[in-house]
Amino acid sequence: MSSTRERPLSPHLTIWKWGPHMLVSILHRVTGAALTVAGLALLAWWLAAIAGGDQAYADFVNLAGHPVGLTVFVGLTWAFWQHFFSGLRHIVLDTGAGYELKINRFWAVMTLAGSLLATAATWFFLLGVGR
Amino acid sequence: MSLGQSATPLGKVKGLGASGHGGHHWLEERFTSVSLVLLSLWLVFSLAMLPELSREVLKEWLGSAWGAVPMTLFIVTAFKHGLDGMKVVVDDYVHEEGNRIALHFLLTMAAIAGAATSLFALAKIAFGAA
């Protein structure tokens, strides 16, 4: 086989029509990276603040309660649930099941719906219990 | 033909693919993901069930074995899974071998540093030194 011969290329990103499965696929990667970089850094900071004393913890709470901090926490909550549901879907796909077009699309949409609902429920509990 | 050259399944996974090694990393990512399904749900529900997120309440929670042991498992598993995932992202987008290895090294160091910091803080809380 000659490697210099012109070969047909598979279609590039630009000519595919976006669908929920493509969106969920890239969101899995984006949310995973965000959870690792921002989420785990916040986990370490949170634990260090609890260990560090009242002043350190008060500083953490002040930043977390600031509108920017809250946005980050709500965003990470959504990222967590999206990665969670999408991850469950991936475990099923890894067994070789769920590739039929309609089923694949349906569960992709369900991860999006599930993550939004779960984010709302999480914050309902976090804020609703009189914190 | 380069990647498809090997005739056997074993040969295909040995030393081939973007990562340069076989199925071990892929499986480990799945093992940690299944563990994290349980551990992350434990964390979210625990935080939601605590009466308030004050330092006193958190210290008492993480001072008990019911808080400290799952939290230890969560820290180790989450940093491991996050590191595995970030390595895959690097493998997919960084094609120059030297840069790829350097980034793997930096990510590994960052993950170990983050996990060590978290575990030390947790130990301080759990053993009543905080």
UniProtKB/TrEMBL annotation, chain A:
It is a multi-pass membrane protein. Membrane-anchoring subunit of succinate dehydrogenase (SDH). The gene is sdhC. It is found in: Membrane. Keywords: Heme, Iron, Membrane, Metal-binding, Transmembrane, Transmembrane helix. The heme is bound between the two transmembrane subunits. Its cofactor is heme. One of its GO terms (molecular function) is metal ion binding. GO terms for biological process: tricarboxylic acid cycle. This is Succinate dehydrogenase cytochrome b556 subunit. The lineage of its organism: Bacteria, Pseudomonadati, Pseudomonadota, Alphaproteobacteria, Sphingomonadales. Heme binds at H83. It comes from the Bacteria. The keyword Membrane applies.
UniProtKB/TrEMBL annotation, chain B:
GO terms for molecular function: heme binding; metal ion binding. GO terms for cellular component: membrane. Keywords: Electron transport, Heme, Iron, Membrane, Metal-binding, Transmembrane, Transmembrane helix, Transport, Tricarboxylic acid cycle. InterPro entries: SQR/QFR_C/D (IPR034804), Succ_DH_anchor (IPR014312), SuccDH_FuR_B_TM-su (IPR000701). Its main location: membrane. The keyword Electron transport applies. Pathway: Carbohydrate metabolism; tricarboxylic acid cycle. Part of an enzyme complex containing four subunits: a flavoprotein, an iron-sulfur protein, plus two membrane-anchoring proteins, SdhC and SdhD. This is Succinate dehydrogenase hydrophobic membrane anchor subunit. It comes from Sphingomonas edaphi.
